[in-house]
Request: fold
Amino acid sequence: TEQPPGAAELRRAKAYLHGQLDLHLESTERHMLWLAEQWSAFGRPIPAARVQEDIAAVTASQVRDAARAFFRPDHLSLAVLSNARPLNMSTPVLFSLRALEPVSTNV
Reply:
């Protein structure tokens, strides 16, 4: 969260969101669900074109700022699922998200 995304990454993310919204609203049923969600959340319908404009206006620094607010180390959890080998459940292993180093536990 230190550096904002690069121009190419931001462009790809915006294109992805535009495409997903367009696909989501292709059917009449989906469009009606969209309108119901807008009424429920905002008390009025927000046109898809307005959402597309808002997506287009997002800057790299806004993405970085949102990531800083959302991805806070004190609020992160990590779950690892693997079938690589059996895990001894009597000895939990925790990892620090900063360096992924094992953290001792006294359970």
